Amino acid sequence: xxxxxxxxxxxxxxxKTLPWHNDDVHEAIEKHHEILMxxxxxxxxxxxxxxxxxxxxxxxxxxxxxxxxxxxxxxAVKDFFTEQNIEYTSEDAPAVKGKLYRSTDNKIKVYCCDxxxxxxxxxxxxxxxxxxxxxxxxxxxxxxRYIELIKTLIHPGIGYLLEMPDRDPSKGDPNKGPFCISFxxxxxxxxxxxxxxxxxxxxxxxxxxxxxxxxxxxxxxxRLTFR
Length: 227
Ligand SMILES: C[S@@+](CC[C@H](N)C(=O)[O-])C[C@H]1O[C@@H](n2cnc3c(N)ncnc32)[C@H](O)[C@@H]1O
Fold this sequence. Notes:
- By secondary structure, the chain is α/β, with parallel strands linked by helices.
- It has one domain: Rossmann fold (3-Layer(aba) Sandwich).
- Helices cover about 30% and strands about 25% of the residues.
- It has helices spanning about 5-15, 25-30, 35, 55-60, 75-85, 140-150, 185-190, 205-210; strands spanning about 45-50, 65-70, 90-95, 100-105, 110, 130, 160-165, 195-200, 215-225.
- A nine-stranded mixed sheet has the order 3-4-5-2-1-6-7-9-8.
- Strand 4 (about 100-105) and strand 5 (about 110) form a beta hairpin.
- It is globular and about 50 Å long.
- The chain starts with a helix and ends with a strand.
- S-adenosylmethionine (SAM) binds near residues 9, 50, 114 and 132.
């Protein structure tokens, strides 16, 4: 990711301006977490790319999953463990030019690095991926690269849930996220073995998120399935 975009994200954390952050577990995770927990070849290992300090990490770990998060901001990662009262250790992770934070019970790992330095050689065998504010946080110029990276973590039957806002194109600044993608473009990006369906609409929209991005008309959670 280019330095300017990364600085923009780190700036949100430094200023503690977090329009996307939800203090409650995501309603789709509460209802549909089983989708992420079992696949034909993997069980109870969930990847949350660009995880921020989402409370979903702990919620999923409390239900018997190993949760692997990845986040560029060290403020976010430390805030997550501190606010959730989880004891943790940290170590250098040279393979991703960053750090690895882990809970002392080893149920939660969070890589603090640029996503584009991550790969299936570092972590794999996921039963599910929870992509909330992750693909859509990536600028359109890099979304193809993001999808190519995520595809290396995909295997047939993996659970993939993706939150996708629905934006009114006539409103707001198109150069400012979230950067939404159509079903067609998603399907094309993930390839012929992927099919995309709408799982549910998010009922409780965060007022601060709508204030930040007034062009958001609604938010859906999509399910991607892979043959
Ligand atoms: C919209 S927030 C979503 C956070 C989280 N998924 C949630 O639901 O609360 C996007 C997050 O991605 C992080 N981020 C942006 N680009 C990144 C990158 N290239 N590598 C790692 N993290 C990144 C930002 O710091 C920010 O915390």
